[in-house]
Amino acid sequence: MPTPPSPRRPAPGQPRATLTREAVLDAAASLVRQHGPQGLTMRKLAAELGTAVTSIYWHVGNRESLLDALVERTVRELDEIRARGATPRARVLSLARTLRRELLARPHLVAMVHERGLTERMFLSAQQALLHEVHAAGLRGARAAEAVRAVQFTVIGHVLVERNRERAPVQRPGEPDLWDTRTAEDDRALARALARAPDAERVFTTSLRALVNGLLPPGTDGSAGSPDRSSGGTSDGPSDGP
Amino acid sequence: MPTPPSPRRPAPGQPRATLTREAVLDAAASLVRQHGPQGLTMRKLAAELGTAVTSIYWHVGNRESLLDALVERTVRELDEIRARGATPRARVLSLARTLRRELLARPHLVAMVHERGLTERMFLSAQQALLHEVHAAGLRGARAAEAVRAVQFTVIGHVLVERNRERAPVQRPGEPDLWDTRTAEDDRALARALARAPDAERVFTTSLRALVNGLLPPGTDGSAGSPDRSSGGTSDGPSDGP
DNA sequence: ACCTGAACACCGTTCAAGT
DNA sequence: ACCTGAACACCGTTCAAGT
Predict the structure, then answer these.
(1) Are A8 and A49 in contact (CB under 8 A)?
(2) Which Gene3D superfamilies does the entry mention (chains A, B) (predicted)?
(3) 3-class DSSP state of B19
(4) Which of B128, B169, B194 is facing A117, going by the closest CB pair?
């Protein structure tokens, strides 16, 4: 949310307004977003800010605590996610989609959060919100916990794979034949479903909707619209969607 | 680019014979497993091997392609995962558990695979195997693809969170009260289910079993509710691998 | 074919010294 | 309170020179 409103233009050697900790963090975050943590060197950062390398140390201590501050900021940003929508179902979907978008917007920072063991902390607010909706939909106890986790892991998994495809080597056209021959085993629809590289957001929304339909009990939501699936006797696991 | 030298066999017990590419990779992998990629410096590696820093360059080119080779090796190792068990259900579970174990055994290397966009490639073999079982259980087309992805994402999600807990800051005792007050909302069982830090493997197996029960159509498997496994030991995975 | 030390450019960090 | 350059230890990499 806090965007760079800094009036500073990076003109190396040019005197400017006083250097502030916020300005250092902004410039550092920008470098990390573009080139990852190893693209952030104290000397490049100083050049970007037009100061001496050593000035930075006064404001942020050292490189490690600078990265820590960036991580802290990221956690705080992800913590501000709120649900939107009328029904629990819609609100869960909105949470998942927002989560996905925010994670994809800062992959390097998210990776740094993970390295520092703060992934769960980062998800805490979203987890609480998911929990609230799942509760509102009627789930309790272990069932509710499972549902929250399922959504969370699905988001993580999708983001991971998407992020991976972005930086994947060429492979995109040659990919299908990994699946064709006997791999997909006489099931062409499956082969396509697995090998295709379509609109990632659509795929995400679709499979998440299916998951939510399987997880949440029917009837809490007018928009359910799908014929109820019979699950055998005791089994109550998530079914599919449309 | 330097060509790979002939596969000469170094004396098994002896730490110091002639320097070989394999020996370099082994030592490098060991350093990465212990301290992560940034713990691998060419100079430390040379010290470890008892050679001059520059000798390494003859065998592996440079640091970047050394890391590439490590990644390649990791992908190859994860590619060797095989299913075990009698029923599709059991085989899916065994695949997931083996996958989890192998991923947890080399978190840094897995992260490097991901950075290079090879995550999907690394999962390819497991994905094919999962697909085979899901097919055997009777799923087809998009349903089968969804099931494979669900298992895959669940494994990834669990490994991510587990890994995260390992390196998380203290927080373990203070964690529950994040959930207590109005967070878990009058549902104490839920609060405990979400905040607890119990045997991670058990949690994994339990939620995966639930997922599989929900995904696979009933009737293909007689052992639906069998209370067979209660031992804590890791009993199913093939301990193949280098 | 394999190994070596010297040398270079870059890095994070400290510190005495400035204002 | 803030900023600075010099200096140090460490890094990856190149290269001419050894065997």
Answers:
(1) yes
(2) Tetracycline Repressor, domain 2 (1.10.357.10)
(3) coil
(4) B169
CB burial of B61-96 (b: ≥16 within 10 Å; e: otherwise) equals eebeebbbbbbbbbbebbeebebeeebbbbbbbbbb
CA A109 to chain centroid: 11
What is the C-alpha separation between A46 and A24, in angstroms, rounded?
9
Q: What is the pLDDT of residue B170?
A: 61
Distance A14 CA to C18 C1' (A): 19
Residues of B in contact with A146 (CB under 8 A): 207, 210
pTM for the structure as a whole: 0.82
Q: Position of tokens 């000798």?
A: B55
Mean pLDDT of A65-77: 97
CB of residue A152 closer than 7 A to nucleic acid strand D? no
User: Which chain B residue has its CA at the smallest distance from A153's CA?
Assistant: B157
Residues of B in contact with A187 (CB under 8 A): 135, 140-141, 144
A185 is written with which tokens? Answer: 């085993």
CA dihedral A181, A184, A187, A188 (to 10 degrees): -70
* Closest nucleotide C1' to the C-alpha of A13: D4
Give percent above pLDDT 90 in chain A.
Answer: 59
At residue B196, the pLDDT reads 59
Q: Which residues 55-114 of A interface with strand D at a CB distance below 7 A?
A: 55, 57-59
Distance between CA atoms of B69 and B51, rounded to whole angstroms? 20
| Alpha carbon distances (Å) from B136 to A47, B147, B211 | 61, 13, 17
d(CA A50, CA A52): 7
Residues 123-182 of A with CB under 8 A from B: 124, 127-128, 131-132, 135, 140-142, 144-146, 148-150, 152-154, 156-158, 160-161, 163-169, 171, 178
Q: Helix, strand, coil: what percent of chain A each, to 5?
A: 60, 0, 40
Q: Which residue in B153, B177, B182, B187 has the most chain A C-beta atoms within 10 A of its own C-beta, making it the best mutation to test that interface? A: B153
Q: How distant, in Å, are the alpha carbons of A92, A223, B194 from that of A139?
A: 13, 18, 14
**For residue B92, what are its two tokens?**
């899916």
Q: How far apart are alpha carbons B211 and A146 in whole angstroms? A: 10
